[in-house]
Model the fold of this input.
Amino acid sequence: MTQPLHVLLVDDQPKGLESLDFRLKHAGYRTTFAHNGELGLQVARADPPDLVILDVSMPELNGYQACRELKKLRPDLPVIMFTGKSDPADRFWASECGADAFIVKPADPAVVMQTLTKLLER
Amino acid sequence: MHTLLDCQIVVASAADLARAHGLSMLLEQAGARVRECSLSQDLWTALSDHAIDAVLLCLPEPDAAALVLFEQVRSQARQRGALTCLLTGDARAAATRGAIVLPPPSQGEALLSSLRDLLAPARRLHDAEEQQRALRHELERLREERAEVAHESRSMLSAIMGFASNLRDELPGPLTWDQRQHVAGILEAVERATRLLERSPSSAPVRPSQPPRAQRVLIPLAGLTREVVSLFDAVARRKGLTTQCELDETVHLWGDVAKLKQVVTNLLVNALRYTPAPGRIHVRVAWSSPLEGDGPEARRQALLEIADTGPGVPRDERELIFERGYRARATRDIKGEGIGLSVVKEIVALHGGTIEVGGEVGEGAVFRVDLPQDRRQRALDALAGEHTGERE
Done:
């Protein structure tokens, strides 16, 4: 029996990714939550994920810094930035840090799922 | 009160230095900052200062040669937006040259009163500029606040949309027809609120098909840099810093004027902010080595370098300082948002260039920006007969 794919969700807002978490579990993924970038990195080291969904504005380590560290850990780890920041500069920074996708909130979770599936197939 | 608070005045005198000194004391008592000098090289050096408000020439007997000198000084001072006045024993001779003649220092009150009235329009302009700066600052604060509200609203709408979409897709379980109508109502309201947010310019997302573009024109980088540096001359002096420029006038490149000015400004402000007095800021514009190829096909790179004598940047922070919101360890106590250098990096990237920081810790930082000239674009435009200054 194959192991379910592991998705790490990193957001400092408690309700931020909860609905997505529900949807992922419903689709058969295993999920882990971390409430800031630093905790996200700790989880990624202890229990390597197959994909990470990251918020940008977080205490301790923001999404850009966390993304850079995650990519150092595993360059091929797919990372989706899912953020309320819609400035063109944020998109630039996301790509600078190596993020594979940039989705502006609010977005239909079905769209997030599509992106996630594509990245995991890659 | 005949106050001349914070006015910067040059007092130049040919021979009667004691008299000039008395005048300086009078002006200083009224709050002015005074620089005394002779009618020699000193005077021309003083006139190169952008911050001066007035030049007072003490010429007891204004002969023809003295009046020619007066006209030269006045012409130079005008370029700096400063007023030139004469203190002379022969007001009639001076008046024939259209000179403003002040009462003698023995009539202290009258002299200060005249000078204050003459400087009043310039002071009003100065006050208006201060007010404009304050308003600009307030506008920037409001813009940031609006962006923050938009960001928070987006996050909340995302949560609502997430849960409502899960219900719509019946993930928690089947819905009745009525329940589906209610969920559809919630999602419609979220979409309307999202559209409203997208109408706000500060929060509108950029579609992937429309990346941000610079408005490119052919720019003399030395001239642009000089212009920005001159704006900060007075600030640098007040802080006890000297600014040196080494600018190659032949350096031109295709770029966005406003954005490149922002690059020079942010790097310069960074150097001014973190360099303690007495310190030095060295600004250099030059050609750096060709980027690729030889001969006419070679793409040259323009180099902009701003070096300071501040604390420098440790090796482990040399990439981090360009990230949004990052504040270097050594300078965290100094006021700043940690945004300036990230903006510089964004603009440099938009121009296809690179930025790096070097220098030794404790000796200073050297920010180096390399910008490709994009010569092929220039050649194409020249062939098409386009004019310099036109948009790409």
About this structure: The interface with chain A takes residues 147, 150-155, 157-163, 165-166, 169, 171-172, 190, 194, 198, 202-206, 211-212, 320, 323-325, 342-343, 346, 349 of chain B (CB under 8 Å). Residues 177 and 334 of chain B are 61 Å apart (CA to CA). The first strand of chain B starts at residue 8 and ends at 13. Residues 108-168 of chain B form the longest helix (61 residues).
